[in-house]
Design a protein that fits this description.
heterodimer, A: alpha/beta, Rossmann fold, 4-stranded antiparallel beta sheet, 7 helices, 28% strand, globular, B: alpha+beta, two-stranded antiparallel sheet, 14 strands
Chain lengths: 230, 409
């Protein structure tokens, strides 16, 4: 049983009279512990695919199985609950809450999971320690560098023990040295914790950290295979 | 599961971030609640003063006045004809079952002198029953005895104002004053009652036995005639029965035929006062209603600011949704925010309202009374306003598309 499985997923947007297929009959399976880079030019459908994988969006047709459960037909609140427990998001723009300390940002997913404040604080501190930010719990995002902010975001993705991390161009706003540090952290989480990492990027050298690369073009998968190290 | 304490903390933080804006939004509610409370305080105060005055003239009171005379087709005012007698008063006391006490009134204005002090005041001839009719207690001394009334004894009871003006610090009981140059012994001091509903000083009075007033002070061409009869009914329910009985009895005693008009007037003072109280109740409601409009406007202010806040924080909402916030997590966050604005505004408004009504009564001299009910009402209403006007923005926030919201700049 694959961890995630997309079966004949199609996503159609209607712009006025024209229907555009952002995804056209995409089928693929992702096993637990994989490290995947999703690539493709803009408009290729990779973002739409990631939104569906992240349960932020529902396909127009087709099935999306997460641990054999079809989440494509779930309602808003059920999807929110799946996102909360199964998926950690890392965004290009970090998407931390400003005016909120690092540790409180990391606590956020647990807030919606109904954990006690004591346990929240404990787990958030541990997650921050794991990404190398011990002692910065009370710093606010504007007091942290870009790399540190992205680490906070990764800690937030980890804290609910989600088996999947979805990273949308996680190094897009970072310099190359910091990018490598962030990617090494991802690799470590993948190998040491067995977390499945799926990242969207258009940078080849970033994609080379992955084990498998999927290329999209015009809403279909054009290539899917193991990463060839340069 | 919704984490309420954490949601409240999130909301409080959001409000702290925009202190100026939160403060101005609250101001709408503060003014609204303050206005409701102080307006109700003015209304309640007016009503309380009236009911105090009603009880100060005595409860369940009926006044019987003589009829008017007609002289060459010109009708004179009520009381110009002397048709009531002490006998009428006695008969009412004896025969009307709905009546508890009856007191005759015969008096006038007289100059009173004690030592080097003198004072002009109303001197009322009556009986000891007057104290029961008016619910009037003595602070010192004793009331008239029946014997003193029968024998036209030269004794008197002083109102507080008269005592103050004539005696100052001296204890008046046992002293002798001169009313129209006739010496009277002061046997008692009436408790202070303050103003009557029509603004008269009720303490500016002297009570003497009715017989003494007739014989020694205000001689009459018709012996035994009196000005007024004051009657106290047994209870508020028996007021109209008492009125009917008095009417019937007096018509009979005055030998009035079927077609003859009454030569007296029976007036129910309590009912008149209650009508006045009723009108202040209407005034209170009116003031409260007008003030509520400002509370409503305050609520609209909250809604306005919450809508702006939702738009500004679209991205934050997107992040929260992506991380797992459900519909009601988001809704509650914004409702609690609106509720916090309105409740803090409400609490501050209560303080403002109380101070405002204190200031009103200090400066304008209006009687005000802040009732706990008004406070509760205004506070509850401000909470409702918060929930009501916070719901739409919260609803709007909860319906945002997380993908769109995350992309929002």
């Amino acid at each position: 049983m694959p961890l995630l499985e997309a079966r004949h997923i199609t996503k159609t947007y209607t712009l006025g009279d024209i229907a555009v297929n952002a995804l056209n009959d995409v089928s693929l399976a992702i096993e637990k512990g994989e490290f995947i880079a999703v690539m493709g030019p803009s408009g290729s459908g990779k973002s739409t695919f990631m939104n569906i994988l992240g349960c932020l969006d529902r396909p127009t047709s087709g099935q999306y199985l997460m641990e054999d459960i079809d989440v494509a037909r779930m309602n808003r609140d059920e999807l929110a609950s799946v996102r909360n427990k199964k998926i950690g998001f890392v965004f290009q723009g970090f998407n931390l809450l400003s005016r909120t300390s690092a540790v409180e940002n990391v606590e956020l997913p647990m807030l919606y999971d109904g954990l006690s404040s004591k346990e929240r604080r404990q787990r958030a501190s541990a997650a921050l320690a794991k990404v190398g930010l011990s002692g910065r719990e009370d710093h606010h995002p504007n007091q942290l560098s870009g790399g540190q902010q992205q680490r906070v975001a990764i800690a937030r993705a980890l804290v609910n023990k989600a088996p999947i991390i979805l990273a949308d161009e996680p190094t897009g706003n970072l310099d190359s040295k910091t990018s490598i540090e962030i990617m090494e952290l991802m690799v470590e989480l993948n190998s040491a914790e067995g977390i499945t990492v799926i990242l969207v990027t258009h940078e080849k050298d970033i994609a080379e950290f992955s084990k498998r690369q999927i290329f999209f073009r015009d809403g279909v998968v054009v290539s899917d295979g193991a990463t060839v190290k340069a | 599961m919704i984490n309420v304490p954490a949601t409240i903390r999130i909301s409080l933080r959001a409000l702290r971030v925009n202190k100026m804006r939160s403060g101005l939004t609250m101001l709408g509610i503060i003014i609204g609640v303050g206005a409701v409370i102080s307006m109700l305080a003015v209304g309640t105060g007016a009503r309380q003063r009236i009911s105090e005055q009603i009880s100060s003239i005595g409860s369940n009171l009926i006044m019987v006045l003589p009829g008017s005379t007609t002289s060459g087709g010109v009708r004179m005012g009520a009381g110009t004809q002397q048709t009531l007698s002490v006998g009428d008063a006695d008969a009412i006391q004896k025969e009307c079952s709905a009546v508890s006490f009856v007191a005759p009134v015969y008096g006038g204005i007289a100059q009173v002198v004690f030592g080097s002090q003198n004072w002009s005041t109303g001197v009322t001839g009556t009986t000891a029953n007057m104290l029961h009719v008016r619910d009037w207690a003595l602070t010192a001394g004793r009331p008239f005895t029946d014997e003193e009334v029968r024998s036209a004894a030269k004794v008197c009871l002083l109102g507080q104002t008269v005592a103050d003006n004539l005696f100052g610090a001296i204890n008046p009981v046992g002293q002798v004053i001169r009313i129209k140059k006739v010496p009277f012994t002061v046997i008692g001091l009436l408790e202070s009652k303050g103003q009557s509903p029509n603004g008269q000083d009720q303490d500016d009075t002297i009570y003497v036995p009715v017989s003494t007033a007739q014989k020694q002070l205000f001689g009459t061409q018709f012996p035994g005639m009196i000005r007024t009869i004051m009657v106290k009914a047994r209870s508020a329910d028996e007021l109209s029965a008492a009125e009917r009985q008095i009417n019937g009895l007096l018509r009979q005693r005055h030998h009035l035929g079927q077609k003859q008009e009454d030569d007296f007037t029976v007036r129910n003072l309590t009912q008149m006062m209650q009508a006045a109280a009723e009108s202040t109740k209407v005034m209170t409601l009116l003031l409260g209603a007008i003030a509520s409009v400002s509370l409503l406007v305050g609520g609209i202010g909250i809604m306005n600011i919450m809508l702006v806040s939702v738009t500004e924080r679209t991205r934050e909402i997107g992040i929260r949704m992506a991380i797992g916030a459900k519909t009601w997590d988001i809704r509650l966050q914004f409702i609690v925010e609106a509720l916090t604005l309105s409740l803090i505004g409400g609490l501050t408004g209560i303080i403002f309202g109380i101070t405002g009504s204190e200031i009103l009564s200090a400066i304008a001299g209006w009687p005000t009374s802040v009732s706990p009910l008004a406070i509760l009402l205004a506070f509850g209403f401000s909470g409702l306003v918060g929930i009501f006007f916070g719901f739409y923005p919260a609803y709007k926030a909860s319906l945002l598309d997380p993908i769109e919201a995350l992309r929002y700049e």
